[in-house]
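Homework help thread (please don't just give me the answer)

Our assignment gives two proteins as sequence + structure token strings and asks us to describe the second one. The first is just a warm-up. Here they are:
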Amino acid sequence: MIRNALWLAIAGCLMMSGAAKAQSWPEGPGRQLTEETCGACHRTSLITNSSGYDEAGWRHLIGTMIDLSGTDMLNEIAGYLAEHFPPNDRRAPTLVEGEHSIRFEEWVTPTLGQRTRDPVEAPDGSIWWAGQWADLVGRLDPESGEMEEFHLPSGAKPHTVTADAEGRIWYTGNGNATMGVLDPTTGSITEYEMPDPEARDPHSAIVDGSGRVWFTLQRSNMIGRLDPASGEVDLVTLPTANSRPYGIKLDSSDTPWVAANGSNRLFRVEPDSMAIEEHELPGDGTHVRRLAIAEDDSIWYVNSGLGRIGHYDPRTREAREWPSPSGPDSHPYAIALLDGAVWFNESGQRPDALVRFDPESESFQSWPIPSGEVHAGIIRHMRPARDGSLLIHQSSTNRLLRVMPED
């Protein structure tokens, strides 16, 4: 018997058209069942482009998404995948040795298939995450390992979470066009609807020093500002079409800067008027998922489109870039500054590589990121914690991780 409650959603997805199915998968026993079950909730290209597994590996990976244990379905699906998608090294990262040491701590979140993502530290030291596919946010006590999940309104599909100074947890309702906030002391949730029907997909968010919540809307090509005191939401559309605003950070003057996943630009938002200032980066293929702002207000960014990391000085408008160790298809994704170094991940590789870049020596060092018994990913966000560690995650295996530098 299938015991995962998410199977109800998956069963409903099976009524969908064949758009999510694989193209030209090999014939054989289990093909149709595998296409329908896997394609119900994600692109099946994630399978064809994976590093492949033996039957035990496929069983383990399936078990992070849905509980099929003890069913003929599991035997049929895992057998088909193992036969036609065995282990390969097509996406193996180029790991760089170095003098630094790190230690990983990891926790597996309770609800299967939730796509655990975007961990952030709250003022009380707890770690919060978004379970996007399960409409939940969760809290981890890193000292005891205890976890609690809070269910959000159906269809919210939270893309990210961020904490304000009072410890309230803000989330972006990527699926129902809302911004929401959870009061952990009472469990109450307040939703704020978008004032424009074209504002469909709140994406990433951050809280400024006055308590206002800034957020991006990627496919809507907008940036939003929410004032919790009045409940008012203001929106501005980016001047360059299809810029797909993604990551957002604040500089030392509480001014938002936004990365563009659809154009070779960074955007500065004037905090009061919300006027947009464009900053063009080199390279027509440049797309920036996320950015990090240094103490001098210069900007480090991942050039996801060209497989590089970059540094941009807003005062001189000069940019400089370095190739990521695994090359142009490595797809750097998340980025953070920690202890004088730039940290990012290569999401195009299996396993994901965590990379450290030293700006002084311009040297790299990298490590494979653990994800249980499989090489799955991916890290979509990373944020420093107050103890000098780095908070990351592995969406495909529902893992939260803390990276502890040891030197």
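The one we have to describe:
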Amino acid sequence: MKKYSLLTIFLFSALFVKAQENKAWTLQECVNYAIENNISVKQSELDVELAELGKRDAIGNFLPNVNASATNSWNTGLTQNVTTGVLQTQTTRNFSAGVTASVNLFDGLRNFKQLQRAKISKLASQYALDKMKDDITLFVADSYLQVLFNKQNLEILKMQNEVTGEQMERTEELVEAGSLPQGDLLEIQATYADEQQRIIVAQNNIRISLISLAQTLLIKDYENFDIVETGYDIFGTEILDNPVEDIVAQAREERSEIKIAEANKQIAEKDVEIAKGAYYPSVGAFFNYNTRESGQGRIVGAEPDPNDPTREIGVVESTGEIVVAPNVLTTIGSPLPFFEQLQRNDGITYGVQVSVPIFNGLATRNQVRRSQVNARRAEYELEQAELDLEANVYQAYVDAEGAFEAYEAALVAANAQEQAYEYATQRFDVGISNAFEFSQAKLRYENAQSEVLRTKYDYIFKLKVLELYFGVPVTDLKF
């Protein structure tokens, strides 16, 4: 019984996973998935992480540097015996260790300016990430609406093709009855075949647009990927009631393009201040503790040599008298214990170091000028970003207005073409018009319906672009 229960759970789990894989995606799900998985977004997130590390580096510059070292070495050959002072062939072992700490007390405020620069750089990286998310959202929305347009356009073609099929059956009956000429039937059949071909093209367009959207989302299962076939209504058009100048002003405060350019300008200005800091003296403090140990023996006793109690060490130049000194024999013992030697031989060094820049081949002055040039360049880039943003907002505003007018015109045209199609159908049914005139009226009606769909989704997309410029967050966009 337990085995059957486990099998049932496994089958239901597999069906649930399969259903999840084959689910239809909504636009919001596509946007959220793209923001979480898009490679460009991930790269921008890495830039934010690197900026955070740069900030930590700047904070670390205020902390002391502490380093420890230890060396244990052997030396073989003719060397001086450090105990007796006599040259001899020997193998000696020496150990030394030390700890050094240093801290920067003053460097022309460069560390402080570097920390400020790192904070601004992190903000710039975050603004770039926000802009990337906005761009990805619009790109996904455009691709999604294109798929939706292709799907609904296919439905229109199928419905019209069904109508054409019904009309073809009626025409065939009328031709057999002698009420209509054979040419009308041939015209209807040609129209039906042409619509079948257009349906195949529309199906291919859906497939291509779905693959394009899946690739944007980094989804590999093209075969099972699909979207929710829900029409999107037009609402929120009140943004067009705002003067375009207000939208431009709001965009300057909210858009990431301006924030990025402003941050880059501030970074360039900090670079100038950092470069000027090299003109000032730098002051640092240091502390060192060191000790040593040796494997050499030590002198444990000394007494005069009974066989040669004195030894000549020199001659008095004025009198020629020979100068002698006691000739002492030393007794060498084993070295002291390791830790005892370290304790006896330790020492410390500490102090303050001042470095005053005098001349370095104009390197500092050139760096300052180079930073000033970059600061002016960043200022021009900010001005250009403001001009580009103003032009883009005006363009988006005009595009949205034009798209809305085109949509309204398409609705009027579609209504007129529908009436013309109904009138053409009535004339064809009573034999007043021929099949060619009927087919032309029907084709114009199909094109008008397709144009309504195209202008509708074009307007929705352009309206969302304008809303982003107005400062509406990506998460608050409504479709």
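TA reply:
I won't write it for you, but here's a hint about the kind of observation we're looking for: The two ends are 51 Å apart (CA to CA).
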